Amino acid sequence: MNIDSQFSADLSSYDNIIDENTSRVITSLTTGVEVRSLSFDSLKEVTGSLLDMNQEVAKVTLEWKKDIGNNQELFDLVEEYFDSSIQILDFCTVFENCLKRARNSQLIIELAVKQFEEEMYVKTLEELKKFKEAGNPFTKEFFTLFQLVYKQQVSMFHKLQRRKRKLKKKLKSMKTWRMVSKVLFIFAFVSVLIFSVVAAAIAAPPFVTALAGALAVPISSVGKWCDSLWKGYESALKGKKNLISSMEIGTFIKINELAHIRIFVNKLEIEMESLLNNADFALREEDVVKPAIDEIKKKFEVFMETIEVLCERADKCSTDVRRARTVILQKINQISQ
């Protein structure tokens, strides 16, 4: 069985304690050859040893409870996730403003082509001049913010993956500890039977009566309690894991969306540069306005299609971020209940 080092250390320590205490129990029970040599002191030694063993498992159980109840690391991740999503929404606002400028450039080109077809050459050149002055619609702020949010999302994705791996290891070790604890309860039950023999041997009727009452309690009920305890821990761990998985998926989607946006922005910049070169060519050489406009018309349709794609991407990006935030809030509420 592949288990993490923490569980291996805990189990090894617990095994050593069981070996030591069991040896002490056997020594106490076998002191003297005759049954009459057994005493309440030896019974006390046995009881104390068993309580020590139970205490060790209780200690491990309490550590698990403390670990599962400690949500600070998880909530720090959630807080960082929400902070980074706000940064993406800010980026989307800047992105949409850039697309508005691209739309304005599109309208200028459309008007320039229309005026050229109506043989309004002076007006055509004026519109081409406006187009040239508008320049690249994507500002320095856009590219700076893009790099920032992209790096944030990649970093967030790696943190979530590391946290998810830790939770998977905890789930594996928890299942093993659940099995160990059930074995312990069986051992404790058998030990009670040994007590009854010892008590009977030293003729302690009141103690035998008390043991009879204890033995009347079905061991299955204790096992069920043990199962319910570990199921609660398992449920809490799975809730955390599902929350991490949701954030991981949402982050991956955002990284993928940002990558697509960058590809289409590059494409639009290339198309924009070509249109600007033709506009500049027409403005410098009036005799070549017609071939320049013809060239602009050929590339203008692709230019418009790219703007449409980017507008859809911008809308999808902001919508996905808001939807992902809602999903995470719902997951948090489920864990809190």
List keywords for this structure.
0% strand; 337 residues; mainly alpha
Question: Overview of this structure, please?
Answer:
The protein has one domain (41-336). The chain is mostly helical and 337 residues long. The chain has helices at 5-29, 40-69, 72-117, 121-134, 140-201, 205-215, 219-284, 289-336. The chain has eight helices and no strands. Helix 7 runs antiparallel to helix 8 (289-336). The two termini are 34 Å apart. Residues 29-40 have low confidence and may be disordered.
Q: How far apart lie the N and C ends?
A: 34 Å
Shape: rod-shaped
The portion of residues assigned to helices is: over 70%
Number of domains: 1
Q: What's the SSE pattern?
A: HHHHHHHH
Indicate the proportion of strand residues: under 5%
User: Low-confidence segments, ≥5 residues, pLDDT <50?
Assistant: 29-40
Q: Let me know the average pLDDT.
A: 76
Main beta-sheet annotation: none
> Please, how many helices?
8
The rounded Rg comes to 37 Å
By DSSP, the count of extended strands is 0
What does the secondary structure layout of this molecule look like, with pairings?
Elements: H1 5-29, H2 40-69, H3 72-117, H4 121-134, H5 140-201, H6 205-215, H7 219-284, H8 289-336
Helix pairs in contact: 1-2, 2-5, 3-4, 3-5, 3-8, 4-7, 5-6, 5-7, 7-8
